[in-house]
Structures are given as structure tokens and as C-alpha cells.
Amino acid sequence: MKQRDEKNQPQPDKGFKIVPATLLVFTLCGLSFYLGGIFYSEKKIFEGKIVQELSKAVSSPKESTVQPLQIKSISFPECSNDYQDYTPCTDPRRWKKYGFSRLTFLERHCPPPFERNECLVPPPDGYKPPIRWPQSRDQCWYRNVPYDWINNEKSNQNWLKKKGDKFLFPGGGTMFPKGVGAYVNLMEDLIPEMRDGTVRTAIDTGCGVASWGGDLLDRGIMTISLAPRDNHEAQVQFALERGIPAILGVISTQRLPFPSSSFDMAHCSRCLIPWTEFGGIYLLEVHRILRPGGFWILSGPPINYENRYLGWNTTVEEQRAVYEKLQDLLTSMCFTVYAKQDDIAVWQKSSDNSCYEKLANPDLYPAKCDDSIEPDSAWYTPLRPCVVAPRPNLKRTSLDSLPKWPERLKVAPERISDVPGGSATTLKHDDNKWKVRAEHYKKLLPALGTNQTRNVMDMNTDFGGLAVALIDDPLWVMNVVSSYSANTLPVIFDRGLIGTYHDWCEAFSTYPRTYDLLHLDGLFTAESQRCQMKYVLLEMDRILRPEGHALIRESDYFIDTIDAIAKAVRWNCRKEDTEEGGEKEKILVCQKTLWYSSNNSTMQ
């Protein structure tokens, strides 16, 4: 009806409207051309003045308006000798400030800014450059890790033995007194995927002296050995002294610093983690970081309890109850028994979404995490009493869907699409860039690519490009992704590399003197608004081995200030061009000197 009414309305005189409108358009166009000409002439004059002024300002690099950052002369005292194994964020001196429930005191508790130490951590008396790889896997200098406690307590289990001026590592352990080689051989029989390149990344919780991770290196499997700073004092330090990847950490109340679906395999050999307590929340964390289709291996209580219970000072009934509770929890988390023989049991995490869909029932425990729980959030993130289910839209993240190693390294992972701007093309470009850079680094630092450089840290990587470029060298790389940057760590693990989240405003979770080479690319440019440069360099000095090196790739604005602070921490540095030349970016090639403490007093 409305349309019909509109048709009956009187129509305007179209001819009367069109003529004035046409004249108006022509008038406005002419006026705009006239004014535009005037504006253009004035604009050209104005721009000419600007160009002249700019050409004067940049006529010579020496006359640049942006001057490099400069600082006053700086120096740092030596820490006292009782700080030779100082771990700032897991410092036993501070444990009494935190609760003992669930071992929360062993988690990261970094000192506030007003308690930070500004001193140089000394090496032990008699320290000398580590034994080189691969000999270091079987021996290290006693004076570099002078701990008698672990030798006295564990030598009967063949963890290690002191002989002369060395510690020897026979390859034994609590659950493998016949040697780690025989133990892993049995494991490979149970898990054939360990032999064909399917399994590439692993985590060892409660690692001892990392003999399991060390053995797996020869089998093409990269393992992060994890242990807290506890009464064994130096499990992680022994591992890194041997040239085996390791990090300080404990499953307590916070998530481990890894994304979801990171590891192909997780291992616990009598690691004393109470898996069935607190509603199985520690198992839930293992489930989170384990890839769909990945394996969880347990040896020690309650496995083989029928034959072992007497040695555990318990009863067969008690251990049977523990085992059944463990099995029930694993089943509720979509694990299935994969294999079992003697002291080893293996479960596999399901990659079938139908199992996780059943956990959506809120009456079940543990229930499926809701969408508000970010699966990859893992920097000071509390443990959650729920199952992090694999994302249904990811079809090529489960273990059986990934290419086998080493093909896996070159294939763009599915999760690269989660990274802003990430794609297969982006990854290929990044790999090509780092191939060129690594070749240049080897010219600047001949020790890179030889057995003089074993433990390497890329302090702010994107996709692990440096690690990819160095993959054929006798070294391993800890790829560190800033907790404040784009989340590229899942891509790194999907490629078959290892890494961790970290915030460089704080100390790293490792002992002093544990890395041969530290590399950073624009870290100070990215973090200078949050982190004080001197504290970052003091931390780098703490974790770098004497006579180790640092490759610092930075903008020319920061490079002189970094060099000045590096001198204050007793490094010898030289400034070099990048592979592309130019003045905007430079490389500092630094070497830490070997010095010994000159004071035996208290902390300065």
C-alpha cells in the first residue's frame, strides 16, 4: 500500500532541479582547481625548505640527529664466594619466606628490585674450562661442580663417582642400575616410535644427573631435563656441565614454562612426584604439555609393585590401591595403556576428540577446561584442575600427523597460522635469513661449529632460525621466547626443537656458568622500556661460562652502552658489522674472562 501511495504523490519538476545542480558542480570544480594550484605552489616551496633542512641534517653520519646512547663509567664488585652457585629466583636463602605446602618454596620467587644484587658471581676455586663434548657426557671436572653430597648419597646407584679430579657418570640410576643404555633399549622395544624419528622431543621430570636425556641424544631425541633446586643441590648443573639440555623447575602450583602440546614424550623415573595427590593436578600438567598421541613413561612406584613393594617399605595392598588410583586418573584424562614390562609402564595421550568431548560434562572430574583457560599461557600461570583438550581445528599437531625427524624441521607447522603474519613463506624466509647470519657468525667466531661451543642459548628467538641453521653442528640450542612477545614457542616445538618462555627482566632458571654461547637479536631495543640493561647483562654474565662468548646483535643506538657495561662485567668485546654492513645495526662479539674471587667476605 505504501508503494502505491508513493506513486500517486506529485513528482517534482526534474528539469528545474538538474540545471542549477549542473552549474553548481562546474563552479565548484573550477574553484577547487584554482585553489589547488595555489596550495600546490605553496606546498612545493614548503617541501623544498624541508628537504634542504633534512639534507643538511643527514649530510654526514657523524652529524646524525640521533646520537647513540651513552652512560657514565660503571663498575661492579665481586659477590662473595658463597654466591658461586647463586640462582636468584630459586635462592635457598629466601625459601623460608614461602610456604612448604606442595613445595611452593621451590618455585620461582625472584627478589624485588630493591633486593637485586649488583655483583659478579665468582667461579669455584680451581674452576677450569669444561671438558668438551662428547667426552663431557661421561665426565666433568670436580672443581667445577664441587658437590660431595650427591656423590656420597648416589654413588651406590651409579649416578656418578668421584675419581681423582673428576666426576665420572657411569650412566646408572635408581631404576636402571644396569645402565641407562639397557634401560632405554627396553623402552625402545616398548615404543618403536622412538626409533623411526616419530619421537623427537622429550621432558624428563626429576632428572637426576640427566643420564636418560644424555643417552637419548645419540638416538636423535632432544630432551629437556627438569629438576628443582633441592637437596640434591646441583642436578641441573651437572646436566649442563655434561652438555645436556636442562632447566630448573618443579611441578607445584604453577604451570611449567612450555606451551600446550609441546613434547612427544614425558618421563619420570622414580621422580617422587605424588601423581595421585591433589586430584591428579600434576598429571593434568603433564597432559597439557604432552602432544596428542604422545607417550608418558613411568618407572618406579607403583609400577611392578607386585615384585617391588618390599623394597619400598610398604605393602602390596597399599601399592595396588595407588596403582589403581593412578590408572583411573589417567583414564579420566584420555590416556590409555600403551605398553608395560618389568619396571616400565607407558601410557599414550589420546588424539581422538571424541574422548575429550565426553569431558564437557561438568559433573565429571577432571572436566574439560572451558574456553577462558588459555592452553599456552605458562608464565606464572596457576595450575588448573581441568583437562586442556586438543583444539579440534588442528589436524596436523598430533604425533602421528607430524612428519618424522628430520623432515619435520623443514615443514611449516600448522600452528604457525596462530602467529600474526605467520605462514610457510614467513618461515622459509626466516630460515634463509638465519642461514646467512649463521655463516657470518662463524666467520666472526671460529669456535662456533666446533666442540668448543656446546650449550647455546638464543635469548629472544622467533621461530628457532638460528637453531635450524646450526642443526648439524655439535651443539644444542635453548630457544627462549619472551613472555611479552608473539607466541612462537609452539612452532618451535612442532619443528622438533626445544625452548622455554622467559622474561629477561628476571633471572633465568639455571645455575651460573652453564652456557658456552649467548645470542641475542635486538633484545635491548625490544625490552629497554621494561628491563634495565645492566641487570640483563649481569644475568648474562652469571649464566655464561668463563671463556664463553656472547653475540649481541643490536641497533647502533645501544651498542656503545652495551659495550661499556660488558667491560664492567670483565668481558672483552669488539664491534663488528652485520652480514649486510651498514651503520644501523652492529654485532658485539664478546668473551667472558676467567677470573677467581679476590674476597672471602660477605656479600658486597
TrEMBL record:
Protein EC: 2.1.1.-
Keywords associated with the record: Glycoprotein, Membrane, Methyltransferase, Signal-anchor, Transferase, Transmembrane, Transmembrane helix
InterPro entries recorded: Put_SAM_MeTrfase, SAM-dependent_MTases_sf
PANTHER family referenced in this protein's UniProt entry, alphabetically: METHYLTRANSFERASE PMT21-RELATED, SAM-DEPENDENT METHYLTRANSFERASE
Entry's localization field: Endomembrane system; Membrane
Domain of life: Eukaryota
Primary site of residence: membrane
Keyword Magnesium (UniProt): no
Uppermost EC category: transferase
One Pfam family in the UniProt entry: Methyltransf_29
Topology versus the membrane: Single-pass membrane protein; Single-pass type II membrane protein
The protein, known as: Methyltransferase
Assigned protein family: Belongs to the methyltransferase superfamily.
Keyword Membrane recorded: yes
Transmembrane regions: 21-40
SUPFAM superfamilies given in the database record: S-adenosyl-L-methionine-dependent methyltransferases
